[in-house]
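re: the backbone from monday

yeah here it is again, tokenized this time
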């Protein structure tokens, strides 16, 4: 009996050390558990994502648009600084003051509560999208199996467009695409206007994407952009070579409009840019599409891919080389860890192909643009 009383007193004493952290950790853990248990309920996830979260994101995006800088970057910086500062102060106190076990317990508890709270909010504000209607479901498009012949036809089509737009964009003395990133960001609120007329499921507020100040850090983590569900902002790395900058903007804006799956966001980025009709955005979209299609064709028919590649203009080849050279410098253990963590994240949300699911946009591209490609070559 005395032992039971001592246990209860001990638990009560631990709770009194930091009651708020205990409550936050408990509520957050319950939310996460409920999300894991109920995410297989399609009707609930669809209702949550489309009737609650998406309208909320629209309001958040409109609010965040009043700020020229990225609120996401600011919040991440403040959060990281607070966590680092708290850990540092606690470690110092562990050395110079008594009560080490109590302070250590409080440190671990508060960090756990903060982590659980962030993840619980993420589950609510973004995780629900993965279990409702995908873009494929909402749009009514088909994404069936494609033949090697269809793949080659669409790859050649995009290579042809790539050469065409590549001659029209501005280039520097080195022959590489000279992107006016500020101008591209300034007109990014127009990108989806045409696409959402064809696909109402892409409807959303015309909000500009934002450049990230510490973009170099993103490059070390192998990120070209990210959608931040806590502020509903589309954020873009402004450091990497500019040829893919515009299509990256469109990719993150796709997420802002509720397209969660990465392969679908790549496809809708290409679709939106081409429908928009802006030369810079069209060139970037064709380069994104060619990259995915070319990789698939190289695996399916290396000889056909070599022939297509040899037909690319010097400017396009210069842009592809610039991209390879830029990202080669970040092939470090940090990037490997970042990729591993992100792949695990994708798989945790039932994107079973992990990061390789980016290549699945090839099926969408081929199915959607095959007839257009045939007409382009006079074969329809």
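seq for it, each position gets an aa:
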């Amino acid at each position: 009996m005395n032992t039971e009383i001592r246990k209860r007193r001990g638990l009560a004493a631990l709770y009194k050390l930091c009651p708020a952290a205990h409550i936050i950790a408990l509520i957050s853990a319950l939310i996460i558990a409920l999300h894991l248990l109920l995410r297989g309920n399609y009707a609930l996830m669809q209702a949550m994502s489309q009737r609650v979260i998406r309208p909320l994101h629209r309001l958040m995006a409109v609010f965040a648009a009043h700020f020229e800088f990225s609120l996401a970057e600011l919040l991440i910086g403040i959060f990281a600084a607070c966590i680092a500062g708290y850990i540092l102060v606690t470690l110092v106190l562990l050395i110079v003051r008594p009560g080490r076990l109590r302070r250590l317990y409080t440190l671990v508890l508060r960090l756990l509560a903060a982590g659980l709270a962030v993840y619980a909010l993420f589950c609510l504000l973004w995780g629900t999208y993965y279990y409702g209607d995908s873009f494929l479901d909402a749009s009514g498009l088909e994404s069936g199996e494609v033949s090697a012949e269809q793949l080659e036809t669409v790859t050649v089509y995009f290579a042809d467009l790539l050469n065409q737009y590549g001659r029209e964009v501005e280039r520097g003395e080195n022959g590489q695409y000279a992107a006016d990133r500020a101008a591209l960001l300034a007109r990014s609120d127009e990108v989806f206007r045409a696409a959402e007329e064809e696909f109402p499921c892409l409807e959303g507020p015309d909000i500009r994407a934002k450049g990230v100040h510490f973009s170099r850090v993103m490059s070390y983590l192998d990120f070209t952009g990210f959608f931040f569900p806590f502020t509903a902002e589309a954020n873009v790395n402004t450091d990497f070579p500019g040829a893919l900058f515009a299509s990256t903007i469109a990719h993150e804006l796709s997420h802002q409009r509720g397209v969660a799956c990465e392969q679908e966001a790549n496809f809708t980025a290409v679709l939106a840019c081409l429908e928009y009709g802006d030369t810079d955005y069209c060139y970037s979209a064709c380069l994104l599409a060619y990259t995915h299609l070319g990789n698939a064709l190289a695996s399916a028919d290396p000889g056909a891919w070599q022939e297509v590649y040899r037909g690319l203009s010097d400017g396009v080849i210069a842009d592809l080389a610039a991209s390879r050279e830029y990202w080669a410098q970040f092939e470090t253990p940090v990037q490997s860890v970042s990729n591993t963590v992100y792949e695990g994240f994708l798989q945790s949300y039932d994107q079973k192909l992990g990061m390789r699911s980016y290549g699945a946009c090839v099926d969408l591209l081929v199915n959607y643009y095959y007839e257009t490609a045939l007409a382009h070559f006079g074969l329809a």
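Residues 2-131 form one domain. The first helix runs from residue 2 to 17.
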